[in-house]
Every structure is written in C-alpha cells, then in structure tokens.
User: Fold this.
Amino acid sequence: MVEKLQKIWVDGKLVAWDEADVHILTHSLHYGLAVFEGIRAYKRADGKSYVFRLKEHIDRLFDGCKMTMLKCEFSKEQVMAACTQVLRENKLEEGYIRPLVFVGDGAMGVYAPNNPVRTAIMVWKWGAYLGEEALKAGIRAKISSYARHHINVSLAKGKITGQYTNSVLAKREAKLAGYDEAIMLDTQGYVSEGTGENIFIVKNGVVLTPDFASSILGGITRDTAITLAREEGIPVQECRITRDMLWLADEAFFTGTAAEITPIREVDNRAIGEGKPGPITERIQKRFFDVVRGTDSSHPEWLTRV
Ligand code: PMP
Assistant:
C-alpha cells in the first residue's frame, strides 16, 4: 500500500491527497493513452536530498508526449520545478516521483482530439522495488510467455500507460509461477527487457545489453550503468542477446529507477554463473549507490537539489 502523504500536484495546483480525483469518463482510463515517468529522489551522504537525473526523465516524458501528440500545458522547466516542489510539500527526503500526462474527460471514443490534456505529479515512499534482499542476493527470473511489444505495434521508447498491460500480465505470470520477475523476449525471440527494467548480462568480462534500436525502453538507469561500467574500465557492448546467451551468462542484472541495480541469480531454473551476484555486477551496483546516495560526486550533472 502506498502510504498517504499530504499533497498532489494537479494541473499546476497543489491538491489535498484525498481530493486528487478524476472523473470516471477520463479518456486515458478507458483507452490507455497517457504518458508517465518514474523518478527517484535520494538523501545523499551530505544529508541533502537530490532528484536523480531529473532532466533526462522529463525529456523522456516530453518525448512520450511528442510521439503520442499529447500537448502538455506545462513546460519542461515547470514540470521539473513541480517535481521538487511536491517532494518539499510532502517533506519527502527520499522517494519516488510519478509525473503523469493524461487525457481528461469530455468526448468519448478513441479520437476525442479536444479533450483536455492534464498533468499530475505525485510522490510516495518507495524502498527497494524487488526487496532489500534482492539487491544483495539477486532474484529469480523467468522468460515470459508474453513477448515485448513489437516496435510497429507500440512505441517502445515511450512510457505509455496502456502499453503496461503487457508488463502487468508478464509480471503476474512470473509471480504466480513462483519467480520474482519476468524477462520478455522480443517478437523475433531475442532478449528484450524485464517488466519495468532493462537487462544486462556479463560474459568473459564484457557487459552486454540489448541495443537501443530494439524493442527496449531507453532506460535512464541503463544509461547510468553503461556510463559507470565504462568509467570502471569494463567494456560494454549493445547487441542482440539470445535466451541461451542469457542462460550461459557469467552474471546478469536488471536496471531501473524502481529496481535500481538488481542482480539476477537464476533464469528459468538455471543458475546464472555461481547463482549469486557476480563481481562485475557488484562493482557497478556499488558505484551506482555511491553516485545516487553516497559520497561519489563524479556526476553533479545528474543531481538536482530538492
Ligand atoms: N523498461 C521498462 C518497460 C520500464 O518501465 C522501465 C522503468 N522506467 C525501465 C525499462 C527502466 O527505465 P529507467 O531506468 O529509466 O527507470
């Protein structure tokens, strides 16, 4: 359960948590066209709170709006300022920020070009998405029977609400089968990503991840992991990955704003490497947590003071 906080930002105004309602005829609720983001704020070792890679998240939100032709009434700068404002109003030093641009009520039917485009920003407390233990010991994943959307069916580079039925179904299938997370293949059969995470494998000292021009979401944590790995002198290649490459990997891990850097210790009942987080995964994970919440100040451009 999300713990109730004080305020939610709705169309430029701060509204009491319980009053942030929409009408049941809200277009996005029926047809799934809305664009959202998931962003984290961390309290760093200096005792201050920072939003991690806020600009990149808001750029992606607006890219989603561009692709879906939703005209957000607010500028990127206004949305960014509102994100930090909502954190402050709720006295949240660490947590998750969810901007949402959606189509309001008015006309029904899929077209409805004149319905208002509305914007809301909410924040909540969110610990480790897959659990604290998952960050330390790794998780068990299953290749899903659901494929990741084909690039000509959906907009892989957008966080578009309706597209997430695919993730919800895959996640439920995996959980009901006793696994922690699902891994989706693309429609050609290559490894794509998790339900809310990008995927990486390590083989013979090289980090591999599906390339950007595939069906993956352009994950901001993915980009962070690639940058940090290269800074550590670890080679990274973006390429196609097959199911058997995944099973035979020395290490594997997920990246995501919610999942952060979560090792994968088993896929389809095959241990990955030694069945525990590997040394390269641990190095990248350590660097990540040092950057987001520790004392590593090598990327000030990634931090926005709350
Ligand atoms: N893939 C999907 C489908 C996602 O929903 C997410 C979470 N936004 C990711 C990957 C990871 O992206 P990011 O690192 O930007 O959170």
